[in-house]
């Protein structure tokens, strides 16, 4: 039970049942490590991973390392259409992920997205999933992502997703809103 207590401390009391599941999953793996594997690099993830798999039309990745492999394998251009199905407008996809003309070029030449473009697709999906979890619906999440915020110097969170640093700022803001540190 020391592992469960450690997991509670790391994951927070709101996620106790998840901490127990993760601890017992580690025990079922017959791991010989002192700490459960989710405390190490291959972090077992939450419903965001299931959404990533569903939204990309893939199996749900179990760890961050699995997400990295998806990005490194480079995504098919058809996955960009899924972003439209999730509610993003073509202009937003052009700005944050890949311009339409470049996408058409990739499709015509039957090329996969570049590593950077694949990473941006995953970044948008990860942030949309977090916003949806925070706000309870996709419509509210998209409205929040599109609205300029004073904390972001009048910029919309969606516009910050072009870079990893910007997406981290948006994700941290969502955590603060979800935890009640910041009222939006």
What would a concise description of this structure say?
With 184 residues, the protein is an all-alpha fold.
Task: Give an overview of the whole structure.
By secondary structure, this protein is mainly alpha-helical. It folds into two domains: 1-44, no CATH class; 46-179, no CATH class. Helix content is 61%, strand content 0%. The chain is built from ten helices and no strands. The protein has helices at 2-11, 16-28, 47-56, 64-73, 79-85, 90-96, 100-108, 115-135, 138-146, 164-179. The protein is globular and about 45 Å long. It starts with a helix and ends in a 5-residue tail after the last helix.
The helix tally amounts to: 10
The percentage of residues in β strands lies in under 5%
Query: What would the average pLDDT be, to the nearest integer?
Result: 79
Structural class computed from helices and strand pairing? mainly alpha
The number of distinct β-strands equals 0
Q: What count of structural domains?
A: 2
GO molecular function, one term: DNA binding
Domain Antitoxin Xre/MbcA/ParS-like toxin-binding: 130-180
Pfam families: Xre-like-HTH (PF20432), Xre_MbcA_ParS_C (PF09722)
Domain Antitoxin Xre-like helix-turn-helix: 69-126
Short key terms for the protein model shown above:
10 helices; disordered N terminus; mainly alpha; 2 domains; 184 residues; DNA binding; Antitox_Xre; globular; DUF2384 domain-containing protein
């Amino acid at each position: 039970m020391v592992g469960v207590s450690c997991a509670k401390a790391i994951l927070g009391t709101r996620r106790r049942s998840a901490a127990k599941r993760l601890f017992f999953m580690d025990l079922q793996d017959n791991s010989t490590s002192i700490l459960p594997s989710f405390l190490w690099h291959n972090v077992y993830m939450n419903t965001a991973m299931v959404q990533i798999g569903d939204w990309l039309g893939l199996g749900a990745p179990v760890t961050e390392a699995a997400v990295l492999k998806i990005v490194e394998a480079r995504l098919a251009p058809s996955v960009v259409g899924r972003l439209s199905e999730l509610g993003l407008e073509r202009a937003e996809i052009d700005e944050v992920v890949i311009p339409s003309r470049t996408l058409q070029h990739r499709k015509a030449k039957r090329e996969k997205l570049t590593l950077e473009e694949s990473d941006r697709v995953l970044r948008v999906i990860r942030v949309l999933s977090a916003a949806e979890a925070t706000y309870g619906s996709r419509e509210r999440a998209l409205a929040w992502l599109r609205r300029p915020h004073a904390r972001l110097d009048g910029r919309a969170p969606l516009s910050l997703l072009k870079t990893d640093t910007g997406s981290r700022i948006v994700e941290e803001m969502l955590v603060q809103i979800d935890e009640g540190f910041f009222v939006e």
